[in-house]
Each structure stands twice: as structure tokens, then as C-alpha cells.
């Protein structure tokens, strides 16, 4: 069983149950893409009294994703940051899929019968 730890910090804005619910909902969405134990670090703040910023760091076994976003609305900002994380996760998964599909160019697999037919004995082999 996997666990998900979520840490949230707020600067210069009020911490509300609605924000907690939104962050929990988005954290669950991110966790669906990833396997293993996760730690999601959220940081939300207001700068210059009007611009909302959200930062997410997703840590887990073999990965570390990070995204930042800003807009005039915190809910929109959270959605933008989650979309960036989703793109990073999809890109990493696509790379993994492509690695598995690529054949090894250096390796030639022959059937055992024909492999021995193509074998030319070395001088050392003939001496014994």
C-alpha cells in the first residue's frame, strides 16, 4: 500500500477549508498518475496584494517534479500548476515507453542451430 503526504503553506492569504479541499482534490489527481509513496509540497501566496502564486513539488521514488504558476485567481493558479505537473509526468512516461520499444542495435539474436553454423573456429580451437 502506498501513502501520500501533502504539505501546504500559505503566505499573505487566508487558509480556508475550500482551499484545503481543492488542494486535496488536485493532489489525488496527481497521485493517480504515479506509483509509490509521494510527498506533495504546495506553496500558495499572494504577491503585491493581487497576484496569486502556486508552487508544487512532487517527490517520490525515482522522480522529482516541480511546477509554478501565477494568475489573478488562486483556483486558476492551482489548475495551471497541476497542468504543468501533468505534462511533466506524461513526458517522463512517454520517454519510458519509447525506451522499452527501442530495439538494441548492437545485439543480434540468432536461432541456436544457425548460430553454430556461422561460427568460424579459431586457430586455438583447431589445435585442441
From TrEMBL:
Segments for region (Disordered): 91-128
Comp. bias regions, Basic residues: 92-103
Name of one Pfam family that matches: Ribosomal_S30AE
Gene3D superfamilies: Ribosome hibernation promotion factor-like
Superkingdom field: Bacteria
Annotated protein name in UniProt: Ribosome-associated translation inhibitor RaiA
UniProt organism field: Halobacteriovorax vibrionivorans
Lineage of producing organism: Bacteria, Pseudomonadati, Bdellovibrionota, Bacteriovoracia, Bacteriovoracales
Protein encoded by which gene: raiA
Amino acid at each position: 500500500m502506498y501513502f501520500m503526504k501533502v504539505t501546504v503553506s500559505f503566505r499573505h492569504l487566508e487558509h480556508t477549508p475550500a482551499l484545503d479541499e481543492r488542494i486535496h482534490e488536485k493532489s489525488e489527481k496527481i497521485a493517480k498518475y504515479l506509483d509509490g509513496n509521494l510527498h506533495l509540497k504546495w506553496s500558495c501566496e499572494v504577491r503585491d496584494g493581487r497576484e496569486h502564486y502556486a508552487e508544487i513539488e512532487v517527490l517520490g521514488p525515482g522522480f522529482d517534479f516541480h511546477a509554478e504558476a501565477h494568475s489573478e485567481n488562486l483556483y486558476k493558479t492551482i489548475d495551471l500548476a497541476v497542468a504543468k505537473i501533468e505534462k511533466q509526468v506524461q513526458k517522463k512516461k512517454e520517454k519510458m515507453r519509447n525506451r522499452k520499444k527501442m530495439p538494441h542495435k548492437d545485439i543480434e539474436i540468432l536461432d541456436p542451430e544457425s548460430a553454430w553454423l556461422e561460427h568460424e573456429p579459431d586457430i586455438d580451437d583447431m589445435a585442441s
